[in-house]
């Protein structure tokens, strides 16, 4: 975007090694996911007491989903569309498509190449998806 010869700066992104965004995506986001996974695992007995075998299975699904997400994040895989039926799913997926359209090289939106704020918020939304999936 240019106005009188001035272009907008690039979005803060983990593609800039050493930047706040890079350190956040490389270090902080995987740590948050690890803490969520650990919390779920530590509470597996409570899930069983409260919900029986269904609670245990939900805990296992969420841990598997979040472990896969952490691996995708750490290896800069493409950011995948949400698949749950929450009322904001379509809005998130439309916004992801907008991010895809803005990618300079046409490559898929990924964890390190996308705007930092987007991928951080997306990670929290994916945690929500993991906790409510059936």
TrEMBL record:
Keyword annotations from UniProtKB, A to Z: Hydrolase, Manganese, Metal-binding, Methyltransferase, Transferase
An annotated Gene Ontology molecular function: fructose-1-phosphatase activity
Superkingdom field: Eukaryota
Cofactors (names): Mn(2+); Ni(2+)
Pfam families: ARMT1-like_dom
InterPro entries hit by this protein: ARMT1, ARMT1-like_metal-bd
Enzyme Commission code(s) on record: 2.1.1.-, 3.1.3.-
Catalytic activity: L-glutamyl-[protein] + S-adenosyl-L-methionine = [protein]-L-glutamate 5-O-methyl ester + S-adenosyl-L-homocysteine; beta-D-fructose 1-phosphate + H2O = D-fructose + phosphate; beta-D-fructose 6-phosphate = dihydroxyacetone + D-glyceraldehyde 3-phosphate
Domain Damage-control phosphatase ARMT1-like metal-binding as annotated: residue spans: 24-131
Gene Ontology biological process terms, A to Z: DNA damage response; methylation
An example Gene Ontology CC term for this record: nucleus
Metal-binding found in the keyword field: yes
Assigned protein family: Belongs to the damage-control phosphatase family. Sugar phosphate phosphatase III subfamily.
Domain notes: Subfamily III proteins have a conserved RTxK motif about 40-50 residues from the C-terminus; the threonine may be replaced by serine or cysteine.
Role description: Metal-dependent phosphatase that shows phosphatase activity against several substrates, including fructose-1-phosphate and fructose-6-phosphate. Its preference for fructose-1-phosphate, a strong glycating agent that causes DNA damage rather than a canonical yeast metabolite, suggests a damage-control function in hexose phosphate metabolism. Has also been shown to have O-methyltransferase activity that methylates glutamate residues of target proteins to form gamma-glutamyl methyl ester residues. Possibly methylates PCNA, suggesting it is involved in the DNA damage response.
Name used for this protein in its record: Sugar phosphate phosphatase
Protein's organism: Labeo rohita (Indian major carp)
Organism lineage: Eukaryota, Metazoa, Chordata, Craniata, Vertebrata
